[in-house]
Write a structure and sequence with these properties.
Blueprint: E1 2-6, H1 15-28, E2 33-37, H2 43-50, E3 57-60, H3 66-75, E4 80-84, H4 91-99, E5 102-107, H5 111-116, H6 118-127, E6 131-135, H7 144-154, H8 168-174, H9 180-183, H10 188-204
Parallel strand pairs: 1-4, 1-5, 2-3, 2-4, 5-6
Length: about 220
């Protein structure tokens, strides 16, 4: 089982958006996927409540029970576990990072947001786990995202090569528990999600597609 922690101390960075979209992309590829929602606001869990499809499974959790929840997901045969954390670079986020195989740090390509991720990047260094910044909600048809990526890379920060844009499909899809891939399968947002998912598979050494399990 591969475990991904999505961490950012700044609210509005897009942690839950990234979490549910990557998890759903993996589920659509045939993987058994679960999301652990550690955010007291329960945004991912609320999305799961609205969702009509059975996968991915979303579970609300607390930091004190995180290891138990991870073990339960592994015992249940999960291929991928995504941990969605609260907007704090605190002990809960640190624990999630320590227990993950990879940490993703969503960040908007704006000056205040880029400055705010320093504490999160320090946390990933303390956790001693590989981490990548995922630039999110970049203005379409703008070079701002690429400029932000180059600036971070110049400081030695690892940045995911796929920049996620600010697109209506991301907002509209989650209203009723769907994702951009499901709301507008042939759209630009769905394409970006697919590219990010394929990149993630390569980073954590997970097959991009798994044969869908037959019903018992």
């Amino acid at each position: 089982m591969k475990t991904i922690a999505i961490v950012s101390q700044k609210g509005g960075a897009g942690k839950t958006t990234i979490a549910v979209h990557l998890a759903t992309a993996a589920a659509a590829a045939g993987h058994a996927v679960a999301i652990i929602d550690l955010d007291p606001q329960g945004t991912a869990a609320s999305w799961g409540d609205r969702r009509q499809a059975a996968a991915p499974e979303v579970v609300s959790g607390q930091a004190a029970r995180l290891q138990v929840l991870i073990d339960a997901a592994r015992d249940a045969g999960a291929d991928l576990l995504v941990i969605d954390t609260a907007p704090n670079a605190d002990q809960t986020a640190l624990r999630a990072a320590q227990l993950a195989d990879l940490v993703l740090v969503p960040c908007r390509p704006a000056a205040f947001d880029l400055e705010a991720i320093r504490a999160t990047l320090t946390l990933t260094q303390i956790a001693q786990k590989p981490s990548f910044v995922v630039l999110n909600a970049a203005p379409p048809r703008s070079g701002i995202g690429r400029e932000a990526a180059e600036g971070l890379e110049g400081q030695g920060v690892q940045v995911a090569p796929i920049i996620m844009s600010q697109r209506a499909a991301f907002a509209h899809g989650v209203i009723d528990g769907r994702t951009a891939q499901e709301f507008e399968p042939g759209g630009k947002a769905a394409e970006e999600v697919e590219r990010l998912y394929l990149w993630l598979c390569g980073i954590v050494d997970m097959p991009t597609c798994r044969q869908v399990r037959k019903a018992a």
